[in-house]
Design brief:
The complex is a heterodimer of chains A (340) and B (234).
Chain A lengths: L3 H40 L6 H21 L10 H29 L4 H23 L12 E3 L1 H8 L7 E2 H23 L1 H11 L1 H6 L4 H27 L5 H16 L4 H19 L3 H7 L18 H15 L11
Antiparallel strand pairs in A: 1-2
Chain B lengths: L3 E8 L7 E8 L4 E5 L6 H9 L4 E8 L2 E2 L5 H6 L2 E4 L11 H8 L8 H10 L1 H5 L10 H13 L5 E5 L7 H16 L3 E5 L3 H6 L3 E6 L2 E6 L1 H6 L1 H7 L3
Parallel strand pairs in B: 3-8, 3-9, 6-7, 7-8
Antiparallel strand pairs in B: 1-2, 1-4, 4-5, 9-10
Helix pairs in contact in B: 3-6
The chains are: A mainly alpha (340), B alpha/beta (234).
């Protein structure tokens, strides 16, 4: 029989390697998916450039962070990047508005079909990714500073007397808290403010919104402002947590779209739920259960293999599989999305 | 000179005209009904009056002002309200939010108008926090009419308000429409249920192929044996 401390150790192991990273990664995906879903709900196309928009936002934040660090400004135990983030948000929003003005507006006037938009967004993806590499270069950048851990594994072990430690990185804590604040703000905006409601109305029924005197140009502009802000925050949080590599943001588009579609694309609540579903699926399927099983089985028996369902190399495939399953079984997603 | 007047309207969606010179007009406090066979251009005429269609010829005047070239949004600010036939509510939004969106162009306090709509359609007050998409067909139509009333229009245009509702609900809706007209609003509507609609109409327009075939008071049209035979099924 395994005793209580063995069960606790197993739980802590899962908490340390699945729950905590899953919450952080899920928050990042949720913020990303929220941006994709907003664009889909209002402008009615799939914005494949969203990953690169996130990268662009993170890049500006990093540049400002370096500048701040160079002048000796820090944010105490928190990452300096949080101080630079507002500039990153403004920069990304301006970039989104500029792209809308010079590119998307043209296709809106042409009443282009969604596939054309999609291809256009792929074009913008390449332009943005080129721009990012041109400005900051293709190398990896670590820009997290301040205190590294909120909770260190060793401190946790000493505190509880268990064999397994639970570590919580500052960036993980910052990610979850920031995501909570941003999501609360977005829902407040959409459900409580006149402008937010007009966005939902426009997304629900464009013709009727026009008949009600809602200005489509304004709705579109506000959508880009929100999307740009979301992208900058999501990109920076992801970069803080995992290190900034321009290359990874292209790959991030897939789990982000999977999240948006799982939840029901166009539905903000769905985007958030979808983000966590995808994040936890990835982690649970690629986690090696060997030590958990060792704790939970009686005696000293330890499984020979890693007891890992999928190698971490196949992480991306998880998003693909979820995507296919959802599209086969319930194409509208968990929350039957379409409108904000 | 009527309050809202469409004179010899010509126009259509593509190359060919659907409207061939029809004229429609209505005064404040009156109910005007446009009837006619399928494809007669009834809904098209409504759209033309509201600026959702480019006119090739003819003019639309509101209170003596030529509004022929104004887009629909500007006609809304001039006091015209339009209830489309389909997709006329924000289905994902609550009844109250639908009415709020109706009042979007108003910067003053629209609460009193909302209370008026609720007293006109009491069932909406009960369902105010329910999404409009979850309501029955008749209730949805009430939301749609209520939304259009939120701007306090002087003209209310309705495109087949009773499409797809039961006869009882239809009578109920017509009663409400009369009530709205009595408050001094001009009502212009297109109806499939021609007989019932003409019964409440101060003016009736029978359109055929985009032209006025008969124009008279609702009562006179109902009494006209030729109109009865050709358009009202005997």
């Amino acid at each position: 029989m395994s005793d209580v401390s063995d069960i606790l150790n197993a739980l802590i192991l899962l908490g340390n390697f699945v729950l905590v990273p899953g919450l952080a990664y899920g928050s990042q995906l949720a913020l990303g998916a929220l941006g994709v879903t907003m664009i889909y709900a209002v402008l009615r196309f799939s914005n494949f450039a969203h990953g690169e928009t996130m990268s662009f936002g993170a890049m500006i934040t990093i540049l400002v962070t370096w500048w701040l660090q160079g002048r000796g400004v820090t944010f105490g135990p928190l990452p300096t990047a949080l101080l630079a983030l507002p500039v990153g948000i403004v920069g990304t929003v301006l970039m989104c508005l500029l792209l809308d003005r010079v590119v998307y507006r043209y296709y809106r006037r042409e009443k282009a079909n969604p596939v054309t938009y999609l291809i256009v967004s792929v074009g913008i993806l390449f332009v943005l990714s080129g721009l990012v590499r041109f400005v900051i270069g293709p190398q990896d950048r670590v820009f997290a500073d301040g205190e590294r851990f909120i909770m260190k594994a060793r401190a946790f072990k000493q505190m509880t007397g268990l064999d397994q430690g639970l570590a919580i990185k500052t960036t993980q804590g910052v990610t979850v808290v920031t995501a909570l604040i941003i999501v609360a703000l977005i829902f407040w905006f959409l459900n409580r403010t006149r402008t937010g409601k007009s966005m939902r109305a426009y997304s629900d029924n464009e013709d009727l919104a026009l008949l009600s005197g809602i200005n489509p140009g304004r709705v579109v502009a506000i959508t880009w402002v929100i999307t740009g802000a979301l992208a900058a925050v999501a990109g920076t949080l992801y970069g803080l947590d995992k290190g900034y590599k321009p290359f990874t943001y292209l790959g991030l588009v897939l789990p982000i779209f999977a999240s948006a579609i799982v939840g029901g694309v166009g539905n903000p609540l769905g985007a958030i739920a979808g983000g966590f579903v995808v994040a936890f699926s990835e982690l649970l399927l690629t986690f090696a259960y060997k030590r958990v099983i060792a704790y939970l089985t009686p005696g000293d028996w330890v499984p020979e293999g890693l007891i890992q369902l999928l190698s971490t190399d196949y992480k991306l495939a998880v998003s693909f599989v979820i995507l296919v399953i959802v599209l086969l079984i319930k194409p509208t997603g968990m929350f039957s999305g379409k409108t904000l | 000179m009527s309050f809202l007047q469409g004179e010899s309207l010509y126009g259509g969606y593509g190359g060919t005209d659907i409207l061939h010179g029809c004229s429609i007009n209505v005064n404040k406090g009156e109910v005007a009904v446009v009837v006619g066979p399928n494809g007669a251009g009834k809904s098209t005429a409504m759209k033309a009056m509201f600026g959702m269609l480019d006119l090739r010829d003819g003019s639309v005047e509101l209170n003596g002002q030529d509004i022929s070239s104004l887009p629909p949004q500007e006609r809304v600010t001039l006091g015209m309200g339009f209830v489309p036939q389909n997709a006329n509510v924000f289905t994902s939004m609550t009844v109250e939010e639908n009415l709020e969106m109706g009042a979007f162009i108003r910067r003053d306090d629209f609460r009193p108008t909302m209370e008026q709509v609720f007293s006109l359609f009491p069932v909406l007050a009960e369902k105010r926090s329910q999404p409009a998409g979850e309501l029955s067909g008749g209730q949805r139509q009430q939301v749609a009419v209520g939304r259009a009333l939120m701007t306090q229009p002087s003209v209310l245009m309705l495109d087949e308000p009773t499409a797809g509702v039961s006869p009882i609900v239809m009578d109920e809706l017509f009663d409400r429409i009369i009530e709205i007209a009595k408050s001094g609003i001009a009502i212009l509507m297109v109806e499939q249920n021609a007989r019932q609609a003409l019964e409440i109409a101060d003016r009736g327009f029978v359109l055929v192929q985009g032209r006025n075939r008969y124009t008279d008071s609702g009562e006179a049209l109902l009494a006209d044996p030729e109109v009865r035979k050709s358009f009202l099924g005997g």
